[in-house]
Amino acid sequence: MSRPLSGPVRITQRGIQITLGLIWLLDGLLQFQSYMYTHDFITQTLAPTRSGQGSIIADPMRTFQNFYGRDQTLWNTLSAEIQCAIGIGLIVSRRTVKSALVLSFGWALVIWWFGEGFGGLTSNTVPSPLMGAPGAAILYAIIGLLVWPTDREAKRSAAAGGPLGDRGGLIAWSGLWGLSALLWVVNDNRAKSATHDMISGMASASPHWLATWQSSAANSSQNQGVSIAVVLAIVSLLVAVGVWSPPLRWAALLVGIVVSLAYWVFGQSLGGPFWVGNATDLNSGPLFVLLAVALVPAGRFLSTTPREPIPDAEATSPRGDLSPAGV
Fold this sequence. Notes:
Blueprint: H1 13-30, H2 39-46, H3 55-70, H4 72-92, H5 97-115, H6 136-146, H7 165-184, H8 194-203, H9 208-220, H10 225-242, H11 246-267, H12 285-294, H13 298-301, H14 313-316
Helix pairs in contact: 1-4, 1-12, 4-5, 5-6, 6-12, 7-10, 8-9, 10-11, 11-12
């Protein structure tokens, strides 16, 4: 008689790979939108990422974008197909995962530089975590590296089976949230109207039901930019540090998930993929959540069946002591 499954859903390295593949596939499908084949994609989506960049970064971006625009139908279709191929490769078989990940690393770097301007980190206009900094592309690469297939056993978390191990995943998490804390205390992001302006700007392009929430949040944040930035900087720092304490790790990851989802709703408009018509991805919110899930402690969610009862030592040992051989 088979034993019924009654434990929590198991989080595995393969599950993270498939989820990452689904996101890549969705990004590829979004790239097929009609807007991506217009000149507006170059001038309104790609070109603004050069703003405030030094010439060593901006000049190659301009060259790439001009080249892309000369035969936009060809290059945009190829871009969409590459992303779909990455997604399908991660989803369909374990045998295609490594090839898909290698392709994803190269493509993520191309997107992060030529499409996102390194998430604005190299610009003189400091990006905000609320809006998705440091950019979705680098998160694709980080998560992909954490779940690269190896022979290591994932005992501590799903990421523990990757080449960087559980510790490498925690370093990546702390680095990203430490960066978020730093970005929040920069002048641009702690101005009195900074949070209000960012949220209200996104609300203008959101559907009514989402814009209502965003407008309410924007009104509540009016002239509260300094306080909000300081609080979120402290929270980000606690999330970055908290994962290193085993008793606090789950709580830190959970707070990180909640904050990332709040950013995604209010600052990133859920990525705006289905109503704006010009979104190239879901933005960084879901990727921060996926990274957190990959780092969830094994004791929390990696069990699919109840623990076996520990045999009573006196019942199994002929002399009633605790030694394995009863001696």
